[in-house]
Amino acid sequence: MSDLSQPRAFRPAATEAPWARITLIIAVVAVLVVLLFAPLITVFYEALREGFGAALATLAEPESQSAIRLTLLVAVFAVPLNAVFGVAAAWLITKYSFRGKAVLITLIDIPFSVSPVVAGLCIVLTFGANSWLGSWLVAHGMPVVFAVPGIIMASMFVTFPFVARELIPVMVEQGRAAEEAALTLGASGWRVFFTVTLPNIRWALLYGVLLCNARAMGEFGAVAVVSGKIRGLTATMPITIEILYNEYSSVAAFTLAAVLALLALVTLALKSLLEWRYADQLAATHRH
Amino acid sequence: MQIEIDEISKEFGTTAALTPVTLSIPSGALVALLGPSGSGKTTLLRILGGLEFPTAGRVLFDGADATALTVQERRAGFVFQSYALFAHMTVFENIAYGLRARPRTTRPPAAEIVRRVTKLLELIQLPDIGARYPSQLSGGQRQRVALARALAIEPRMLLLDEPFGALDARVRKDLRQGLRDIHDTTGLTTIFVTHDQDEAMELADLVVVMSMGRIEQVGRPQDIRARPASAFVRDFISA
Predict the structure, then answer these.
(1) In chain B, where are the structural domains located?
(2) From the CA of A263, how many Å to the nearest CA of chain B?
(3) Dihedrals φ, ψ of B29, to 5°?
(4) B167 φ/ψ sector (left φ>0, alpha ψ -120 to 50, else beta)
(5) Which residues of B213-225 are buried (b: 16+ CB within 10 A; e: fewer)?
(6) Is residue A137 part of a domain?
(7) CB–CB contact A184 B149 (8 Å)
(8) What is the pLDDT of residues A18-58, one digit of tens each?
(9) Residues from chain A contacting residue B84 (CB–CB below 8 Å)
(10) Which segments of B86-168 does DSSP mark as H helices, in order?
(11) Please, where are the H alpha helices in chain A?
C-alpha cells in the first residue's frame, strides 16, 4: 500500500524518465559529433593545412575550375528539370485516380532502391558506342556517354524522386478543395496552378529542390561510370576529388571537398534564412 | 435561375452514387438536399456545379441544356464543406479572386473590384476583416467569407455543401438566418446539402429527401412533416 500522505512526483505520461532522456541525448550528440562534425572539421582542416594560399592556388588550377563549372552546369540542368517533373508527377498522383498509379509511384522510387552504379551502367549500355542508339548519336556528333549529356542524365536519374517525394504527402493532405473552389470562381487550369496550387506547395517544393540540388552536385557513383573520368572534361567535383586524393594531392582534394561542403552549408543557411524571413507567413498559413 | 435535373445518374466505377434522379427547382427557391451520408446529395450538388459529370442524363438551366458546360462556364457560387479558403491570401484577395480571374475584357478595373469586395464584406457583416488571413478567423467568419467569395462572381445560383457542418450549435443558428437573409437579398436560386433535418426544415422552401442515390420525397417542410412518403422519410425526419 502506498502512503497517501507522502507527496509523489507525477510526470506526464508521454515524458520519459530523466535517465532515459539523458542517455538518448548523449547518444544522439555522440553520433552527430562522430559522423557529422568531426569529418566536416577534418575536411576544412586538411584543406587549410598548408595555408590559405595553397588552398586558393589549387582552386585556380584549370582542372579544379573545370570541375566546379561542370558540377554547376549539371545542377543547372538537373535541378529545374527534376523540379518540373516532380511537380507534374506529384500533381498526377495526388489529384487524379487512374489505373497503374501504384506502378508509377514505384517507378519514381526506383532511384532510391537501385545502386547509382547500376544506374550509370544502364546509361552506358543504352547510350554507349556499342548500342545502336549510342552509335547513331556518336555518328551525329552528340555523344552521351563519356560526355556532359550522360552526366546530366545520370544526375537526373539519381535525383529523380526528391521533389516528387517531398510534394506528394503535402498535396495529399491539402486535397482538391481549394483548387476546385478556384475553378468554380472561373479560373483556368493554369491560373489555378499558379495562384493556388503552387503557393500552397512552395515550401515543400523548396525543400525538395534544395535536397535535389545537394544530391545533384554531390553524386559520385552514377557519374563515375558514365563520365569516364576524363580530367578537365567530364570530371565533376566529386570525381576530381577522388582522382586528386588517389594521387596523394591531399590539399587539392580536401580543398575541392571543402568547396563542395561549403556549397551544401550555403544551401542549408539559405533554407534557414528563408524560414526565418517568412516565419510569420508560415505560421499564418499553417503550411510548410 | 430555374434548374431542371433530367434523369441524372452517376456511377463511380461499379458503385452507383445516383440512380436516375429527376428534379425541378423553381427560380429563386431555397432548396435543401437532405439525407444521410452516402445518399448522393453531395454528388448531385457537384454535378450541378460542374465539378462532376453525370454518367447519363441532362441538366437544364432556364431551359437550356447545361450538361456539357465546364465548371467555369456554369458560374455557380460554390461554398465547400470546409470552405476551401485560400490560406495564403487575405480575406480581401480571397473574395476578389473570381473577379481577378476573369479575362481582361470582362475584368472590372481595380477600383471597381475594391468597391465590390467592400460591399460584399458589408453584406456578410464583417466590414473590417479584409486584411486578415483565413487562419485568423473563427469558423463562422470563414463560412461567411466563403459565401462572399462565391457571391463575388455574380453567380447564377448558389450551391452550398454542408455549409454549417463544421460549426458549433450556437453559431449554426445565427448563420442559418444569415444565409436566409442573403438568399432573400440576392434572390439567387440556392441549394444546400445537409444531413441535419432541423436545418433543412427550418431554412428551406423546398426539401429534397434523398437516400441511397434516390430521391425519396420532394416537398415543402410542412408537407413532408405532415405526409412522409415512405417509412425512410418518416424515420429520418423524426430522428
Answers:
(1) 1-75+161-239, 84-154
(2) 31
(3) -80, 155
(4) beta
(5) bbbbbbbebeebb
(6) yes
(7) no
(8) 888 899 999 999 999 999 899 999 999 999 988 888 888 88
(9) 177-178, 180-181
(10) 91-100, 110-123, 139-152
(11) 18-32, 38-47, 51-60, 62-95, 101-113, 116-127, 132-139, 148-174, 177-184, 189-192, 198-218, 221-227, 237-246, 250-277, 279-285
Q: Who among B78, B86, B133 is closest to A184 (CB)?
A: B78
pLDDT for B83-140, tens place per residue? 999 999 999 999 999 999 999 999 999 999 999 999 999 999 999 999 999 999 999 9
Picking from B76, B85, B101, the nearest residue to A187 by CB comes out as: B101
| C-alpha distances in Å from residue B23, one per residue of A156, B5, B6, B44, B73 | 55, 5, 7, 11, 22
Q: What is the mean pLDDT of residues B206-217?
A: 94
How far apart are the CA of B128 and the nearest CA of chain A, in angstroms?
A: 18
Is B136 touching A (CB cutoff 8 A)? yes
| pLDDT of residue B144 exceeding 80 | yes
- Chain A: give the shortest CA distance to residue B177, in Å: 24
**What is the CATH classification number for the domain harbouring A113?**
1.10.3720.10
Q: C-alpha grid cell for residue B62?
A: 432556364
Of A181, A191, A195, the CB nearest to B78: A181
Is the model more confident about A275 or about B214?
Answer: B214
Residues of chain A contacting residue B101, judged by C-beta atoms under 8 Å apart: 182, 185-188, 191, 195
Which pLDDT score, from 0 to 100, does residue A85 have? 93
Instruction: Quickly list DSSP for B164-225.
Output: TTTS-HHHHHHHHHHHHHHHHHH--EEEEEES-HHHHHHH-SEEEEEETTEEEEEE-HHHHH
Q: What is the pLDDT of residues A119-140, one digit of tens each?
A: 999 999 999 888 888 888 888 8
Bridge partners of residue A254, in order along the sequence = none
Measured distance CA(A48)–CA(A42) in Å, rounded? 10
Residues in contact with B189: Cβ distance below 8 Å, sequence separation at least 6, in sequence order: B1, B2, B3, B25, B26, B27, B28, B29, B31, B156, B157, B158
Cβ of A183 and B80 within 8 Å? no
Return the C-alpha cell found at B1. 435561375
Decide if B62 contacts B1 (C-beta within 8 A): yes
CATH architecture of the domain B1-75+161-239 equals 3-Layer(aba) Sandwich (3.40)
- The pLDDT score that the predictor gives to residue A287 is 43
Query: Is the model's pLDDT at B158 over the cut of 70?
Result: yes
B28 φ/ψ sector (left φ>0, alpha ψ -120 to 50, else beta): left
Is A41 a domain residue?
no
- Domain hosting residue A246, numbered range: 48-285
Give chain A's domain count.
Answer: 1
